[in-house]
Amino acid sequence: MAGSGSESRFYASLQSGGLESSYLFYGPEDVRISGAVETIRARIEKEAAEPSAAWSAYDLDETGFTPFMSDLKTVSFFGGRRGIIGFNFHVSAEGTRGPTGSYRLTEGDQEELLKYLDKPAPDITLILRSGKIDSRVKFWKSLKRKIYEVSFASSPADRREIIMRKLASTGLSFDTRAKAWVMDRFVDSFNQLETEIDKLVTFMGTEKKVTVRELEECMSVPQIENIWALTESVAEMKINKALNALNSLKAQNQAPEQILPMIARQFRLLIICKSCGEKKLSIEETAQKCGLNRNTWVVKKYIGQANRFSTPSLKKILCSLSAIDIKVKSSGLDRWVVFEEEIISLFTVTLQQPQNRTRITGI
Question: Tens digit of pLDDT for each residue in 260-289?
């Protein structure tokens, strides 16, 4: 049965009733997703006549889609309910392989799966496990209408806590500025954290004290200064300045997928700063709302940039960034070319908005 629910509602439904015919688990919380999968697996195997034959797992990066789909259509020899999970489940308009070689469902694969979900096998519980999904894409919209979806999401506060735990688990000693540096760059690019922390541990060797200098030398993340420069260029309507910032990011071998979340975060923070200013909140209250370091100069820096935009402009730019994200991922063209063209289009967005700006001075 199609439906959706929170993680707690999912567990409550298991206690009060039977298993659904199909589930979609997605989000950044891998440990919690694994726990939910194991809960379903334990229940199926406990009730199975032959537990060893009651569970099948397919890593689509390794097997592709055909064996997975074939198993879904196979009647169980032992009878009773079976569980089938497909993980590393992704879609793309660009073909069957993503930029890192991971499997992407073709349009034919997508159609075959959606057709199966119209009339799923009565003796199978299907689990599709994915990371981040884009609910604006047609396939995901269609899938969610046919499957029970559970989002294992995390709030910014959750992510900050997880980042701090991850830093502590490395055995390294991060100074205050180094912790803030990591937080600024990964709180909205959470899926990159694990790889970059592993690189850092290897890079540090026997040295234990980590400063911003070591982080900048080791980690492959966009420099925040270039994100600031890009935002300033839009505020000042200086296209050449924007192109220089983009060229700097490109020279660092940054992918548009890494840069876009940081740009979006910047504009979200500016909107929050605008709102806090209109409500006459203090520096400390504004910092708390934004999840920023409480140093006065940090918050004032964001407020200063927020003053360069009207609230309608900021909101329109955020909507445009969402559209840019889809175009970059689905156009099938060179991603950097598409990204640069769409970022420059933000200047048109700013020009079209009213220029009367409420200046924030009461903080």
Answer: 877 887 888 888 888 888 888 888 888 877
Write the pLDDT tens digit of every residue in 99-127: 445 567 888 888 999 999 999 998 999 99
Of the residues 128, 151, 174, which one is the last residue of a structural domain?
151
Q: What does pTM read for this prediction?
A: 0.48
Residue 318 domain boundaries: 224-352
Total domain count, the chain: 3
The reply to whether 15 and 142 lie within a common domain is yes
Q: What is the 3-state secondary structure (H, E, C) of the chain?
A: CCEEECHHHHHHHHHHCCCCCEEEEECCCHHHHHHHHHHHHHHHHHHCCCHHHCEEEEEHHHHCCHHHHHHHCCCCCCCCCEEEEEECCCECCCCCECCCCCECECHHHHHHHHHHHHCCCCCEEEEEECCCCCCCCHHHHHHHCCCEEEECCCCHHHHHHHHHHHHHHCCCEECHHHHHHHHHHHCCCHHHHHHHHHHHHHHHCCCCEECHHHHHHHCCCCCHHHHHHHHHHHHHCCHHHHHHHHHHHHHCCCCHHHHHHHHHHHHHHHHHHHHHHHCCCCHHHHHHHHCCCCCHHHHHHHHHHHCCCCHHHHHHHHHHHHHHHHHHHHCCCCHHHHHHHHHHCHHHHHHHCCCCCCCCCCC
Query: Same domain, yes or no, for 49 and 141?
Result: yes
Instruction: Tell whether 362 is covered by a domain.
Output: no
